[in-house]
Amino acid sequence: MRRTTSPLLLVVLGLAVLAWVLPAFSQSDMVVVSRDPFPAPQRPAARFEHDVHNEKAGLDNCGVCHHGETDGKMDPDNSSEGTPCVDCHAVNPAADPKLRDKTPLRRAYHLQCQGCHENTGKGPLTCGQCHAPTAQE
C-alpha cells in the first residue's frame, strides 16, 4: 500500500518555512529608521542601511540589536527579530499600562545604537551624523 502526502500538509509546511525565513529578509531594503511611531518628529529619520551596517560591523547574531528579554532584563540570546521595536518600547510608556516600565522608544533607539558605537569606538555618535536629510524624506 502506497502512502501519499496530503496537499494540506505540504501547504502548512511551506507556510511554516516562509514564516521562519521571511524575517531574515524583511529589513534588507531598509535605509532609514522609521519615524512613523513618533507623532511630531523633530529631526529627519536616522539613516540606517540594515544589511550594509551589519556586514560592515560583522554582526551575524540578530539578537545583538533585536534583543528580547528574560525575567524583565534585556537578553540578546532571546531574539525579537521580526517584532517592531514599538511593540515593546512605547513612544509614551506612561500612556500604555503594559509598557509603563519599559524604556521609551526614542531612548531605546539611542541607547542601542549610540551605546554600541561608544562601546566599539566605531560609528556615528552625534545627532547630525545619523539624522541627516535624505532622498527618502
Descriptive notes:
The longest helix has 19 residues, at 7-25. Helices cover 34% and strands 8% of the residues. The protein contains 4 helices and 2 strands; from the N terminus they run ααββαα. The chain starts with 6 loop residues before the first helix and ends in a 7-residue tail after the last helix. It has a single domain, classed as Alpha-Beta Complex (Cytochrome C3). The chain is mostly helical and 137 residues long.
For the terminal residues, how far apart are their CA atoms? 63 Å
Per DSSP, the total helix count is 4
User: What is the beta-strand fraction?
Assistant: 5-15%
What would you give as the CATH superfamily?
Answer: Cytochrome C3
Q: What proportion of the residues is helical, as a percent range?
A: 25-40%
**Biggest beta sheet attributes:** 2 strands, antiparallel
Short overview:
By secondary structure, the chain is mostly helical.
Strand and helix layout:
Layout: H1 7-25, H2 50-57, E1 67-70, E2 73-79, H3 105-120, H4 127-130
Antiparallel strand pairs: 1-2
Provide keyphrases for this structure:
mainly alpha, Cytochrome C3, 34% helix, extended, 4 helices, two-stranded antiparallel sheet, 137 residues
